[in-house]
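Chapter summary example: a protein plus zinc ion.
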Amino acid sequence: MVRGTTLFICTKCKKIFLAPDAEYGAMIFSVPMPCRRCGSIRTLPVSQLLYISVYKRIWAAMEKDKE
Ligand SMILES: [Zn+2]
């Protein structure tokens, strides 16, 4: 479900960009949106930087799905 838009930050290149905020697996977390600059999916909402350890697991799961 899309909850509007939110500011994401890319952990690779530190780009901050606005992208759709879709809930990840019915949790409070958001689906990481590809970075507008470098294309990395290792992004997370600026407002959820405290949860970076959770996002590390989400990124690993997404990268595994792409293989
Ligand atoms: Zn980037």
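Key point: Residues 2-66 form one domain.
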